[in-house]
Amino acid sequence: MLEQLGRKFARFTTNQVVRRPRLWPAFRWLTRSQFNRIAPRWDEMRSPEAFASLEAALDALDVSPGRALDLGTGTGRAAFLLARRYPEAEVIGADLAEEMLVEARKLTPPELEGRVRFEQADAERLPYPDGSFDLVTLANMIPFFEELARVTAPGGAVVFSFSAGPETPIYVPSDVLRARLADQGFAEFADFAAGNGTALSARKRGGA
Ligand SMILES: C[S@@+](CC[C@H](N)C(=O)[O-])C[C@H]1O[C@@H](n2cnc3c(N)ncnc32)[C@H](O)[C@@H]1O
């Protein structure tokens, strides 16, 4: 019952905030509390195929990031995936919910310690300088397009993935993502489907 309500709240929040980002402060506290509460069980709630579409998008991207950011990292699974895929990269997993970060730090494999780190941050206003990241991933995460564009380096890539496609509680349709990203100077859009999930990749204009 509580889970059902949580899923409905996540969908409602996503729809509202994508349309009107200025509403986010009204949703922030409840979103953070909700994810803090479920953090210890988050990994059990997810399907083993949760990142299939993210992997498919990364397979197709020609990138070798020096710095990568996984926004809304939760228990850090996508951050670990990035660190393994790009052995030269420094990877940051950022999340609003501190209990998620507690889990992510516990789950960090010894061989990735030092190269992956987890930081509390709000995607609406990130504590990183302009153009900090060559790759930003958002798995099942509410996007803040202006801030995403600000921290992505010219020529850098972003990947949005949704583990259960349109059934994902936090879901933004590809046409909406494309339009909002285009407004922020992104191009080269590509859609992917794998497992039950979908993904979209894009590149920020500029760069070499
Ligand atoms: C549905 S979970 C996805 C977690 C992880 N990416 C995954 O797929 O397993 C969404 C995550 O985004 C975080 N989140 C929501 N809004 C955020 C924001 N504005 N800034 C940073 N993290 C946020 C939540 O705390 C939660 O951990």
What does this structure look like?
The chain is an alpha/beta fold and 208 residues long. The chain contains 8 helices and 7 strands; from the N terminus they run H-H-H-H-E-H-E-H-E-E-H-E-H-E-E. A 7-stranded mixed sheet has the order 3-2-1-4-5-7-6, with helices on both faces. Helix 7 links the parallel strand 4 (133-139) and strand 5 (152-162). The longest helix is centred in the first third of the chain and has 18 residues, at 2-19. It starts with a helix and ends with a strand. Bound molecules: S-adenosylmethionine. The site of S-adenosylmethionine has 22 residues, from helix 2, helix 5 and strand 2.
What's the topology here?
Layout: H1 2-19, H2 24-38, H3 42-45, H4 52-60, E1 67-71, H5 77-85, E2 90-95, H6 98-107, E3 116-120, E4 133-139, H7 145-151, E5 152-162, H8 174-183, E6 186-194, E7 197-204
Helix pairs in contact: 1-2
Write a brief structural summary:
With 208 residues, this protein is of the alpha/beta class.
